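pinned: reference chain
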Amino acid sequence: MVRDWADFGVWEERHRELLREAEGRRLARGLREARMEERSGGASVGLAEGIEVRWGLLEDEPRIADILELNGMPRWIAFEERYIVAEKDGEILAAMRYMTEKERLLLGLLASDPWAEERPLAVALYVRAGELAREMGVGEVIARPFPGVDDYPREAGYRRRGRRGWRLDAVRNGETHEGPVG
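pinned: its structure tokens
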């Protein structure tokens, strides 16, 4: 039997399914945040107040290029790669390069405005990258931070992955970073 999505009953049931899934994700996120807060002794690892994190857009490239240049990197990288950006009050203050593979979101270079406080921006980028991965159905997030910023993924709930990176299980019953990761 072929279901006709125009049939209201079918649409209504699908709508209920989507609401149940969304509520499950919301509850899992709340549980995850509570566990992370408990592990950090009450210090929140969620997004710092006022920081918005989103996928980078084409119109963001000039500002990302400015940030890269301020960090001693060539501007052209901003136009050749894809980024997740952190902004506050509508101004992009940090960007993190990403790539996608089957079932993986790979995080790389992190650059921030030298006059902005890097830690809350970086942690917000790592936290939200996990949420963005879940939203697109990706199974895991792999972060390869650069020297000097190695603890940002840990603060965001990632687990050590060998000597060269960090891992976040993005889809495991709606929760993250459970169990040992090798």
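why pinned: DSSP finds five helices and seven strands in the chain. The beta strands are 51-55, 82-88, 91-101, 104-112, 140-143, 159-161, 165-169.
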